[in-house]
Design goal:
seven-stranded antiparallel sheet, 499 residues
Length: 499
């Protein structure tokens, strides 16, 4: 569900910004720091958007550092994210890799690093001022392979995990560093005569929203991403400096459909071209749009009708045309289409309460209320076998994933944990769901933009969710069904200021 608001309609051309045009990907330079005996190297695989770093160096410790460093110059706040792994058995147990931010390339510069050692020790290590000795805080997570380093003004946070698990986080406050830092990936062999290697994927340099950000007035840039559900490797396929949201994957596997600034767009996965989809007078579209199972029709949620109703639901042929209005009143936010094509399920705001409804997709019948509670129910989606509607509900005090029969009976809770869980989406085979999880600092009835969130996967019948993506996003990231038709990938949106 997206709150009703009025878009400022400005004609624009969606322009492609390559995620990385440099031979070093997202980094500007790679260098050796200190008096290393063997030159290091950074290699970038543009197809997989992955990195391999090799380097030597005696250590990163005391008041002198020696290592190889792939970095960019970053100003202000940032979030550095990657998944990394050392190659081979190694020579020294204290060979290390990770993220680092430092004031200069001087060997004794002020610095902070999220560091993983060859023996599994994982720590945030920092030198407060040039020439001082390094301090550290050791994480209980051993041999982390998901590594994040974040700057919030003069505080630095390390978040680490074994892939699939949630982050463990520690904050180091009051590091009086310059506003501009050199930040990037590093490797150190901890042995001056040896060279070690590490590989990294899912590498992201995130420039987050500014402190004065106003939701639904201000927006930052967007990355349209694909994730391989076997390897969990992520690939950015399209980047823009404004907001794009909620990719649907067409059943023929050819296109992604998303919304931006009130309009609907189609991304061609073969030609990589973006074109506007004609929705005629329905132009104030939000991120609650859904394809029919056969791919012939697109359902829209739009504020193009009576202003008093806010969002209403329309359907239009997938190739575009004149939409047909389906819901007589609003606000109504579409989330699911029944496999037989006969029903739409949506979140309806009626008399100040938001519950789950269904309505005939041909617009020739009345809406049927399926839940009836004063707390928020949202995100309804049909299972591929047509037996259930899955949704998220705040009825227990936190937002959790539920399911019910399609007539509203047998309502059953599937998650119960420390997160606020939204928007369950089915794999094509009906065996798994992927959903969005916020931390508990977000209220149960909110799903804001620009937060650090997880995408998690669990069996459709319930079970222990596994983290499959650690990203900066939230609202608009995965509001709609977005599995590829073969079930091998998902599409979603992550966010960053894109310059």
């Amino acid at each position: 569900m997206t709150p009703s608001f009025t878009w400022t309609l400005i004609f624009f051309t969606m322009s492609f910004t390559a995620f990385s045009q440099s031979p070093l990907g997202v980094f500007e330079r790679s260098v050796d720091v200190g008096n290393v005996r063997h030159a290091g190297k950074t290699s970038y695989d543009a197809k997989n958007q992955s990195y391999r770093l090799s380097g030597s160096g005696a250590n990163i410790w005391f008041n002198k550092d020696e290592f190889h460093f792939a970095h960019s110059r970053l100003q202000g706040n940032f979030i550095l994210q990657a998944r990394g792994l050392l190659i081979g058995p190694g020579t020294d147990l204290h060979r290390k890799f990770g993220w680092m931010a430092r004031a200069s390339l001087d060997t004794n510069a002020a610095m902070v690093a999220a560091t993983v050692h060859g023996d599994g020790l994982t720590a945030i290590q920092f030198r407060r001022k040039a020439g001082e000795l390094i301090e550290e805080v050791i994480s209980p997570v051993k041999m982390a392979d998901v590594i994040q380093l974040e700057r919030r003004s003069q505080s630095f946070l390390m978040s680490v995990a074994r892939f699939g698990e949630p982050f463990w986080t520690v904050e180091i406050p009051a590091l009086d560093f310059p506003d501009t830092l050199l930040a990037g990936l590093f490797i150190c062999s901890h042995h001056p005569d040896m060279v070690e290697e590490a590989v990294f994927d899912n590498v992201r340099i995130v420039l987050p929203s500014p402190p004065d950000f106003q939701p639904y007035r201000d927006y930052i840039g967007s990355h349209l991403e694909l994730m391989d559900m076997g390897s969990h490797q992520r690939t950015v396929i399209y980047s823009v400096s404004n907001s794009i949201q909620a990719p649907n994957w067409t059943p023929d596997g050819r296109y992604l459909i998303f919304n931006s600034e009130g309009l609907i767009y189609r991304y061609d996965l073969i030609s990589h071209q973006v074109t506007e989809l004609n929705t005629d007078f329905v132009r104030q579209n939000n991120n609650d749009h859904v394809l029919s199972f056969d791919g012939k029709m697109l359902g829209l949620s739009s504020s193009s009708g009576e202003q008093a109703y806010g969002s209403l639901i329309y359907t239009v042929p997938v190739e575009g045309g004149i939409p047909q209005r389906i819901t007589p009143v609003g606000p109504s936010y579409l989330h699911g289409w029944s496999p037989d094509g006969k029903w739409l399920t949506f979140t309806g705001g009626r008399d100040g309460e938001y519950n789950i409804y269904k309505i005939p997709s041909n617009g020739k019948g009345k809406e049927v209320q399926l839940t009836d509670l004063p707390t928020l129910d949202d995100g309804p989606e049909y299972s591929p076998d047509g037996q259930f509607i899955y949704f998220n509900s705040a009825r227990t005090g936190s937002m959790e994933i539920w399911r019910m029969k399609t007539d509203g009976s047998e309502q059953e809770q599937l998650t119960d944990d420390e997160y606020q869980n939204w928007f369950p989406h089915f794999s094509p085979d009906g065996q798994s769901i992927v959903f969005l999880s916020y931390q508990r600092d977000v209220a149960a009835n909110e799903h804001p933009f620009y937060r650090q969130v997880y995408l998690r996967k669990m069996p459709a019948k319930g079970g222990t969710p596994k983290v499959i993506a650690y990203l900066y996003g939230g609202q608009g990231s995965i509001n709609v069904p977005s599995w590829s038709p073969d079930g091998k990938k998902i599409a979603f949106v992550s966010n960053s200021i894109v310059e």
